[in-house]
């Protein structure tokens, strides 16, 4: 049900919105006005002013004559026809809210217009300078147009009529006009502030409107434009305009209210509903999907994210100059304007940042070199120049958008402003037009010369490493990657192997063969030949290759089962500490020798459910945390590859990766015959992906808000400085915001993520992502602008952190509780007015939140108790999830399930997007299914699958035990097709290799392990199914509601 | 009777040292927050004084018990118990990697401890003065000692 409804509701909503769009157009002015005060006209909107103006207004003008006659009656009619009509009727009441500020102005102005009569006149007036002059008084006229625009849109009738009617009606019945009109007003005088605030929200609703807005520039025009809509092309302007808006100091509070009230609270005031109701209904049908759970749940109707992650589009449309959402996602694009509002929103307010996310071809981040001027930054808050800064004083000064300090423009960076206040060299300045830029940093940004890319390998060569084949696969892979290591010819490389002793290798380029040196004094580690252990790859290439070739055979007969991991780690630290770099650890057994040895503390069932449970998930020996801190201090990132079939205490080993910005790869029970491809792919990716070295990251944001907590794999160097010895595209970081002031007075909050790093080529660079988000005063608006993906990403990190200080159960309950609180708050907003008893309502933007919450509670780190997941797997998954970007996390939580047998038999192309709900009901015994969570594939063979398919895919092995069979390409059409599908999935996400597990229906326990426990909608073990979960949430929401 | 004022002077010295150690830690955390210190320095500084502080506080507490000052002993028992549990659960040291997560809590405990020690300081000083009045000799020595103590503690800051 829920899924269906959303669309419908939209329609009604849209008409209402349209007017707003018009408003938006106005906003640009506002911003200008607000910022500069008088500057309004000059706005940045790069688009040529002339074109903009002429089109909308004129059209209106021509229409104008027609308008007058039809006046009132038409307007009403027009209004009604659209679905929202009901809403409109009431609108008059809406005015009441707005009253004081707008009214006065309107009162004055309206008459003028009417008097002018010639409606054509009206448009005329607005456009020309008069608009500016009259600004203060004008507010009304704008309002009038506003009202009309919506109408026109809805009815589809000629624009002409509408405007007239609007005027007439409005004058008398202002309330209506205002509601619709607010946008207009803002463009002009004081009202601006208010309008602006309101707009953002509206903007989201309709993308179209945005396009129109740009044309607006002349303050008067906005209204008309809104109506006419057509001028769309200029979308970019909108964004700009908004960005500029920041200033509107004046009326913000009032403005906010108007915006918010209209939508949600409009309801409360009886009459005001006109607009409020309209909005409300729309949101009802749209956003809040009613599902009645009383008489059983219609499982099929529950919302499911079968389309994958949906990035919030509205946000980008509102602020086109924002960085892409692949770099930065906010949990809600509406920043609460007060602490009380923030506390009512129960979900986290924050951001998920993936600073080096891979960009599709053509969208690369532009690189800017400020060699002559030095990087332009704000003197006070150190913000980097970005598209939202404004230039004033003929281009000699620029105003920081974050702290609003007026900075001087260096003479080398100076450029004249054109008539609209835009720098004439705007097009050549990516830093002024793009949300993401990379600056080349001069020497001031270096504490030492940029380091070369450095890869150091710490390899366990004990008996199990040799027997599992890990050593061989690893050395082959490293050898094959030598050509692709980034940073040629500066790349450095080195190796240490260890069992119960530590083996160093002299790789000096003058040698033919590497020289091995064994150190067996583990208590007092010393480094033999400190200079030749770490060598330049291009110089010592042949020695390195000789080493890798001989490594597996060297230890072939090693029967040593001990592992002096701690001392080896210290040795590696000593070798690397001069330069930093990346340390890859290949660990096969539990560290058993020397410092840092770990006990087989194992997974004790008796501990689960007690206060000591979480200790299992913490590093046992403080040595590991201490080492991790030292590594970070010396710019060393650690990646841990663990292979053991027994307990290896990933909790302890992984903390090395956690605090150094690294990653944990866990291959339980590694066997080269099975896991070869996975290790090969993932190790190769780790070695060859573009990496940023010795990086630090900081997120700046506007006054009044502050990032307080950070979540992910890294270490904080100071309260807001994230130290990242190595970063790459597969790492994301989350942060939570808090409001420092009880009431925000700005209209927009800006965020700037700056990552200072050394590129593999040895250049110091700063990657800067800038984004703006509107401040809202209304809870409903926050919900509407919410981003489920980012929220879930933050939730998962919070929950995982919680598992290291309390029980799994507590962590799960915390997730559930927050979802319940959030939905209850939302329900309180709407339920009473609409008598929704027996229905669960939630905003459209959060419709998947409950399901993802359920999936999160069933994810490996959080699920069940003792028997539901191995402790090591839990910890490894937790470390992985702490670093996953949003999209990959969502895929892991709600994996793809597709049926492929149909397309195998038929000739049609396989439709990769036909995802099925993750429930056992989706599985047909005659089918062949692929389950893909981004980390592995499970291919499920139904019991009654046609033998033809099985035989074609598996050859003669189809009757064997599937755990021993692997899927490989065979010489027939079906097999090729399946492999093509799998490869397609793999290519879509290269960060991990999805190993294929074949499972036959009814084959226990493999089926249960690989598939059934991952069908998140089903009831597994003690956890609830989707329908139960919803019912449970619903009951809790209703308690104390 | 002469040893009583001496004892109280010892108490007040111990108390002032405790105050100093605590204040030192508190300053460290404030500096960290203001970015004057990095987490590495902070943890090494704070960790170097934590165990001495715990020991001193334990001695302080036990000395009251041994000398039969029941009331003071009972008063000093809660902080001693708190220290003991922290120590036994291995939570007394500052964890470099997670400093910022515990920063506020640690600051708060330092402030509370400071408050507790100041209360003790008041009590100890009044007792010292009372004890001092019995001994004319000590009563005129006392202010000198007090000054000295102050100076050492101030220097430490």
UniProtKB/TrEMBL annotation, chain A:
Domain Zinc finger Sec23/Sec24-type: 375-413
UniProt-annotated location(s): Cytoplasm; Endoplasmic reticulum membrane; Golgi apparatus membrane
SUPFAM superfamilies on file: beta-sandwich domain of Sec23/24, C-terminal, gelsolin-like domain of Sec23/24, Helical domain of Sec23/24, vWA-like, Zn-finger domain of Sec23/24
Sec23/Sec24 trunk domain segment(s): 450-686
Domain Gelsolin-like residue range list: 914-967
Residue stretches of biased makeup (Low complexity): 1-16
Highest rank taxon of the organism: Eukaryota
Similarity comment text for this entry: Belongs to the SEC23/SEC24 family. SEC24 subfamily.
Protein name, UniProt field: Protein transport protein Sec24-like At3g07100
From TrEMBL, chain B:
Localization: Membrane
One GO term of the biological process aspect: vesicle-mediated transport
GO CC terms, sorted: membrane
Entry's transmembrane regions: 7-27, 54-77, 114-142
Primary location class: membrane
Keyword Membrane in record: yes
This protein's record includes keyword Transmembrane: yes
GO MF: signaling receptor binding
SMART domains cross-referenced by the UniProt entry: Cornichon (SM01398)
Record Pfam families: Cornichon
Record's keyword terms, sorted: Membrane, Transmembrane, Transmembrane helix
InterPro entries: Cornichon
Topology in membrane: Multi-pass membrane protein
Protein family according to the UniProt entry: Belongs to the cornichon family.
Protein name, per record: Protein cornichon homolog 1
């Amino acid at each position: 049900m829920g899924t269906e409804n959303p669309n419908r509701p939209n329609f009604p909503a849209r008409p209402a919105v349209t007017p707003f769009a018009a408003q938006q157009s106005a906003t640009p002015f506002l911003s200008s006005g607000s910022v500069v005060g008088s500057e309004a006209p000059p706005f940045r909107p790069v688009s040529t002013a002339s074109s903009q103006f002429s089109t909308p207004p004129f059209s209106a003008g021509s229409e104008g004559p027609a308008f007058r006659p039809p006046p009132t009656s038409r307007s009403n009619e027009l209004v009604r026809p659209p679905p929202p009509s009901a809403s409109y009727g009431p609108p008059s009441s809406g005015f009441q809210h707005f009253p004081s500020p707008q009214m006065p102005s309107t009162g004055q102005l309206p008459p003028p217009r009417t008097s002018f009569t010639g409606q054509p006149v009206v448009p005329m007036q607005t456009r020309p300078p008069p608009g500016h002059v009259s600004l203060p008084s004008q507010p009304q006229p704008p309002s009038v147009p506003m009202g009309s625009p919506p109408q026109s849109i809805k009815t589809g009738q000629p624009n002409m009529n509408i405007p007239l009617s609007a005027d007439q009606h409005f004058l008398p019945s202002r309330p209506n006009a205002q509601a619709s009109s607010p946008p207009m007003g803002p463009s002009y005088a004081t009202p601006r502030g208010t309008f602006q605030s309101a707009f953002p929200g509206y903007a989201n609703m309709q993308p179209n409107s945005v396009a129109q807005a740009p044309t607006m520039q002349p303050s008067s025009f906005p209204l008309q434009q809104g109506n006419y809509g057509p001028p769309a092309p200029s979308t970019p302007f909108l964004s700009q305009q908004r960005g500029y808006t920041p200033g509107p100091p004046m009326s913000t509070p009032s403005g906010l209210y108007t915006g918010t009230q209209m939508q949600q609270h409009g309801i409360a005031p009886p009459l005001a509903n006109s607009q409020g109701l309209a909005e409300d209904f729309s949101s009802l049908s749209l956003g809040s999907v009613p599902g009645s759970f009383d008489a059983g749940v219609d499982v099929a109707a529950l919302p499911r994210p079968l389309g994958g992650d949906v990035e919030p589009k509205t946000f980008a449309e509102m602020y086109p100059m924002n960085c892409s959402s692949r770099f930065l996602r906010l949990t809600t694009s509406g920043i609460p304007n007060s602490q009380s509002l923030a506390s009512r929103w129960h979900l986290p307010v924050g951001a998920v940042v993936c600073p080096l996310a891979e960009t599709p071809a053509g969208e690369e981040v532009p690189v800017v070199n400020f060699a002559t001027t030095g990087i332009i930054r704000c003197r006070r808050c150190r913000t980097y120049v970005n598209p939202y800064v404004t230039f004033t004083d003929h281009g000699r000064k620029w105003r920081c958008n974050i702290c609003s300090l007026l900075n001087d423009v260096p003479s080398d960076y100076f450029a004249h402003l054109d008539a609209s206040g835009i720098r004439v060299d705007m097009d050549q300045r990516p830093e002024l037009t793009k949300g993401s830029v990379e600056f080349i940093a001069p020497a001031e940004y270096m504490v030492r010369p940029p380091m070369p890319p450095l890869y150091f390998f710490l390899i366990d060569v004990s008996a199990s490493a040799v027997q599992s084949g890990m050593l061989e696969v690893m050395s082959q892979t490293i050898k094959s990657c030598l050509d692709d290591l980034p940073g040629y010819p500066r790349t450095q490389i080195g190796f240490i192997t260890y069992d119960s002793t530590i083996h160093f290798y002299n790789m000096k380029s003058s040698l033919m063969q590497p020289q091995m040196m064994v150190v067996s004094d583990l208590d007092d580690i010393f480094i033999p030949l400190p200079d030749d252990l770490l060598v330049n790859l291009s110089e010592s290439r042949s020695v390195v290759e000789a080493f890798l070739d001989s490594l597996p055979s060297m230890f072939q007969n090693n029967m040593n089962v001990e592992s002096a991991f701690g001392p080896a780690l210290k040795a590696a630290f000593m070798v690397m500490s001069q330069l930093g770099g990346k340390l890859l650890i290949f660990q096969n057994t539990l560290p058993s020798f020397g410092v840092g040895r770990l006990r087989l503390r194992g997974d004790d069932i008796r501990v689960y459910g007690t206060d000591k449970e979480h200790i299992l998930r913490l590093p046992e020996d403080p040595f590991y945390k201490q080492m991790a801190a030292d590594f970070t201090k010396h710019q060393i990132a650690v990646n841990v590859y663990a292979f053991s079939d027994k307990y290896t205490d990933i909790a302890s080993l992984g903390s090395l990766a956690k605090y150094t910005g690294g990653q944990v790869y866990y291959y339980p029970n590694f066997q080269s015959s099975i896991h070869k491809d996975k290790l090969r792919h993932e190790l190769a990716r780790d070695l060859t992906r573009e990496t940023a070295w010795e990086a630090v990251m900081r997120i700046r944001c506007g006054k009044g808000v502050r990032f307080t907590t950070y979540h992910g794999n890294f270490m904080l160097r100071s309260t807001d400085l994230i130290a990242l010895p190595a970063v790459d595209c597969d790492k994301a970081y989350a942060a939570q915001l808090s409001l420092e002031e009880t009431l925000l007075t700005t209209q927009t909050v800006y965020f700037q993520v700056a990552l200072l790093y050394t590129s593999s080529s040895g250049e110091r660079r700063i990657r800067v992502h800038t984004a703006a988000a509107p401040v809202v005063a209304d809870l409903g608006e926050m919900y509407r602008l919410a981003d489920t993906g980012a929220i879930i990403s933050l939730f998962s990190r919070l929950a995982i952190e919680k598992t290291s200080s309390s029980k799994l159960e507590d962590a799960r309950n915390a997730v559930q509780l927050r979802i319940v609180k959030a939905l209850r708050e939302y329900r309180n907003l709407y339920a009473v007015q609409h008598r929704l008893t027996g229905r669960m309502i939630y905003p459209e933007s959060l419709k998947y939140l409950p399901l993802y919450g359920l999936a999160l509670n069933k994810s490996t780190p959080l699920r069940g108790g003792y028997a539901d997941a191995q402790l090591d797997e839990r910890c490894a998954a937790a470390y992985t999830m702490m670093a996953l970007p949003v999209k990959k996390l969502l895929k892991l939580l709600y994996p793809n399930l597709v049926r492929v047998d149909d397309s195998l038999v038929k000739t049609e192309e396989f439709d990769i997007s036909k995802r099925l709900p993750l429930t056992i009901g989706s599985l047909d015994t005659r089918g062949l299914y692929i389950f893909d969570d981004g980390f592995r594939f499970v291919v499920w063979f139904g019991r009654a699958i046609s033998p033809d398919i099985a035989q074609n895919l598996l050859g003669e092995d189809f009757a064997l035990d599937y755990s021993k069979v692997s899927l490989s390409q065979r010489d027939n059409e079906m097999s090729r097709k399946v492999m093509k599908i799998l490869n397609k999935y793999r290519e879509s996400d290269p960060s991990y290799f999805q190993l294929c597990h074949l499972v036959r229906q009814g084959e226990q326990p493999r089926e249960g392990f690989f598939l059934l426990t991952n069908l998140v909608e089903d009831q597994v073990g003690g956890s609830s199914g989707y329908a139960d979960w919803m019912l449970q949430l619903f009951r809790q929401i209703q308690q104390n509601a | 009777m002469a040893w009583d004022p001496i004892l109280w002077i010892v108490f007040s010295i111990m108390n002032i040292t405790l105050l100093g150690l605590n204040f030192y830690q508190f300053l460290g955390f404030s500096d960290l927050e203001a970015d004057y210190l990095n987490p590495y320095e902070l943890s090494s500084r704070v960790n170097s004084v934590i165990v001495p502080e715990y020991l001193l506080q334990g001695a302080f507490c036990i000395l009251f018990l041994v000398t039969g000052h029941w009331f003071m002993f009972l008063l000093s028992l809660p902080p001693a118990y708190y220290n003991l549990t922290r120590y036994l659960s291995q939570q007394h040291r500052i964890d470099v990697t997670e400093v910022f997560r515990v920063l506020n809590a640690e600051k708060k405990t330092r402030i509370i401890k400071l408050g507790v020690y100041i209360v003790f300081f008041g009590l100890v000083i009044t007792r010292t003065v009372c004890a001092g009045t019995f001994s004319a000799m000590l009563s005129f020595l006392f202010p000198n000692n007090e000054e000295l103590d102050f100076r050492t503690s101030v220097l430490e800051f």
